Fold this protein.
Amino acid sequence: MTDSLLMPSIADAYRGGMRQLAAGVSLITSADLQQPGGMIASAVTSVSAEPPTLLVCVNRNASMFELIQRSGHFCVNVLSADALGLVDIFSNAARRAERFATGEWLQDDLGSPIAADALVAFSCKLVNTVDWHTHAIFLGEVTNVVHPNSDAQPMVYHDRAFHQLSAL
């Protein structure tokens, strides 16, 4: 047997390694012509404070890809540990009709939905899109920040499971 048969491909090794990178869980929302959409994401990163900018990675096959491009805005709702119900609804295409019928929703100045129980919500105006193979990297300049539920514990995704941080 050769070493290449025993070694995982670089893509498999990458996926296995990324499972070890704990990340906050966000609900990315947007709306176009009063039609809201949303998806769960852990690929959200701060880019800069001047100007305040976030990036969100979205698969081109996701419905949110076209919605963000059309609307020109999105909201990053950082989820609390008790928001597993929203994660289930927004991760399941078969439950799409339930998405904004569940929970309490606000709307930002750009038209994106804000989850009323999010730890923090960042309203973003789309300023640039970087195409990268199967995904788009959407860069959004933050136009507003609200803290609907800042006392809650954050939700964390690690090794294919959702977790709550515990006090040290």
Residues 10-18 form the longest helix (9 residues). The mean pLDDT is 92. The helical segments are 3-6, 10-18, 63-71, 84-90.
